[in-house]
Amino acid sequence: MRADQDQLNQGRGGRPVARRRALAAGLIAATLALTSACTSGGDGKPSSWQGGTETPAPKAAATISEPKADAKDVPASTAIAFSTTEAMETAVELKDSAGETVKGKLAADGKSWLPSGVLKYGETYTATVTATGDDGRPATATSTFTTMAQPSKQIRVSSFLGDGQTVGVGMPLIVKFSRAIPESYRDDVQRRMTVTSVPAQEGIWHWVSPTEIRYRPKQFWKANSKVSYRVQAGGLPMGSGWYGRADLTVDINIGPSLIMTVDNKTKKMTVTRNGKVVKTILVSLGKKSTPSSSGTMVVIEKLRKTVFDTFEELGPDEGYRTKIDYAQRLTWGGEFIHAAPWSEGQQGSVNVSHGCVNVSMADGAWLFTNTRIGDPITVKGTERKLQNGNGWTDWNMSWNEYVKGSALPYEPPTEPSTDATPDPDVTPTTD
């Protein structure tokens, strides 16, 4: 029986069953080889008919144009300039060599990103721009660059106004530079100058001289506005190897709308507060030989007590030296609103001053108490026109004239005004 069983365990040809096992194993190996060939092409990539697909490229694309990759001696004021295509969302990130993220924001045109402050001198940064299209796939561009060493030639930027100051509705924002800014650099400087107001108001910068630039809204500031202005000048090239020393930020408040209007015909001043007449004051203006200037001015400074000394200007025959109360300067040439008790008999009827707006002691005290630096005054109907530059004469120019002083093209707001009619109390008028 054992022998018969052993024969059954062999094949019919008398070969051991192990051969069949070997053959079966070979068939299995062939099958595996065939399977492998079907799931991977000759280049090692999955074949699509087995369910594998290549990852498509993002629809969006991003490119950084400035600073260039590996750039050296980059100004510490640099912006990250970039372009994107088919991007639904764009994000910019800037990190220093320690991996710390630098704060900043996109420019209004969406084509550049500006750090919130001056970058460190001699530091290496990496900028990354990520653009995401409607397919949800991000595309990135990077640029690693190194900022310049701290420059030795630096220009100081200063503001006439200080933080927290409250001024009148005609106050221009005044920024000065310690060195003249070449005309070819003024547009770059102006791009780094921003004004934010609450409520929002249209306005523009105007170069008064190579060392001074001012800003005014299209109409007088709205009463009780909050205004913040910033000059990101730190590290900014300003010509001939000079750079801005530091950034400047100032926050101010606008007070009530107090506006003075003087009519030479009636010899009266009308004072309005927030659109309502609150006082009418008799005045005496400049006599024919020294007429007052017609135009729109603002209060430049206030002096409770001072002395007018005109001997050097007018000579021994016409000159005088007089103590003055409640003086408010309107022009650099010496026109003031001030108390003049000696002319109270002529106020309201005859012009007898040397160009100033004379009022009584009582009215001078009232005005001095109620006015602020930057409150506007318009004088009408005199023999002499106000010369631009003789004081803060920003409101003596039309809006179209003022715009011409900008180093950048004027771009009107995209959203139309909701005001049905102009507010007469915030629109200056001149003869």
Task: Provide a descriptive summary of the structure in words.
This protein starts with a helix and ends in a 28-residue tail after the last helix. The protein is built from six helices and 27 strands. With 431 residues, the protein is mainly β.
Count of discrete alpha- or pi-helical segments spanning 4 or more residues = 6
Strand content: 25-35%
Percentage of residues in helical conformation: 10-25%
Helix-strand makeup class: mainly beta
What spatial order of strands do you see in the largest sheet? 20-19-18-26-21-27
Number of strands: 27
Silhouette: elongated
Rg over CA atoms: 39 Å
**pLDDT under 50 segments (min length 5)?**
1-49, 416-431
Largest sheet: 6 strands, mixed
**Termini separation (Å)?**
138 Å
Mean pLDDT: 87
Mind sketching the topology for me?
Layout: H1 2-8, H2 18-39, E1 61-66, E2 80-85, E3 89-96, E4 104-106, E5 112-115, E6 124-132, E7 138-146, E8 154-155, E9 157-159, E10 166-167, E11 173-177, H3 186-191, E12 193-198, E13 203-209, E14 212-217, E15 226-231, E16 243-244, E17 248-254, E18 258-263, E19 268-273, E20 276-282, E21 293-298, E22 301-309, H4 311-318, E23 321-329, E24 336-339, E25 357-359, H5 361-370, E26 376-380, E27 384-385, H6 399-403
Parallel strand pairs: 8-16, 10-17, 18-26, 21-27, 24-25
Antiparallel strand pairs: 1-2, 2-5, 3-6, 4-5, 6-7, 9-11, 11-14, 12-15, 13-14, 15-17, 18-19, 19-20, 21-26, 22-23, 23-24
